Amino acid sequence: MSVVSGLVVVGSGAAGVSAAETFRARHPGIPVRILTTDPALPYAKPPLSKDFLCDRDTRLDLHSAQWFDRNRIELIRGVTVRGVDVDRQEVVTAGGRRYPYWHLVVASGSAAVRPPISGIESALTLRSFADAVALKMAARYSDCAVVIGGGLIGCEAASCLAERGVATMIVAAEHVPLQRRFGVEAGERVAKILSDNGVRFAGETTVAAIEGDRVVLGSGETVDADLVVSATGVRPDIRLAETAGLTIRDGRIVVDEHMRTSARNVYAAGDVALAHNVTAGRPIPAEHWRDAAHQGRVAGMTAAGFPAVWDIVPSFSSVIGNAVLRYRGWGAGYERARFVDHHTGFTVWYESGDGDVVGVLTHNADDDYRRAEGILRKR
Fold first, then answer.
1. How is domain 7-111+234-304 classified at the CATH fold level?
2. Whether the predicted pLDDT of 1 surpasses 60
3. Is the entire prediction scored with pTM above 0.70?
């Protein structure tokens, strides 16, 4: 049976669903398909480590199955796309099925990176809903856990495990958590937040091996752990883009402010995209849910033939225990970090070499967070 061309989206995360939803709203009669390896209905990922793992009330589904049926968006789950024929404008699945497209949005997201550690295959990750369910079930039968990695996901997951009564330690190469991204002073405050929530932090430490129910540190010391979580970062999944010959830089697909790639009628959005941000005046990696959703909307608008550009200032929040950290800015690059202590929180202003503000991190300092929007846009 022949398949009618239309919009094809690869990936069912925020970027992919936003692109499909936006395109459908403007073209009710053109076929729209989402192809995804995930067997679950499209869901929000940030609540997995912030709420779901902690047993807090949360709504994960982006839309119900009935919503996709009602809007005539064909959601094809549990399928792997192995290639794109940009000349014939077809997407090819691992089973050999071909889906022709008029417009294609690549929103394949990221995959968890596992460090080269002996026994790492026994460690759990926290990237998908299936990962979160497995980790939540394992935590029920665990007394002690080690989280490898002191980034945002590692800190959030560790605080949730501790909240569930699991004695939890974070092991990280940095002196303090989040040091590479946010600096030493912010990291010291996060270490205090973790400690207050019952999480031990072992900095400047590596994991040499995972052996059964214990973790061997680089120093030779062993730590009991009947649960190990690998939270050592993610890597954009650009395999499809590589097979299609799309332009790639710094491990991401190069797109303009309209999310157009180097191939005709092919767009990219979300983690895989290195997009030109109009407000920043330069390419910015998309790192978080809000960025991905907005980029997906831009891709959907552009594919539908309507004007749209990526111009928002990226922002995100992180929940560690009861503490909420908020960031707004252009990413990791900064020359100076100006730490401002408050009675109940703090603000860190990140500045370039010429003194321009390029980002802000706040804890219980919402006025600074709101003010940063105008400062970043002006600069």
1. FAD/NAD(P)-binding domain (3.50.50)
2. no
3. yes
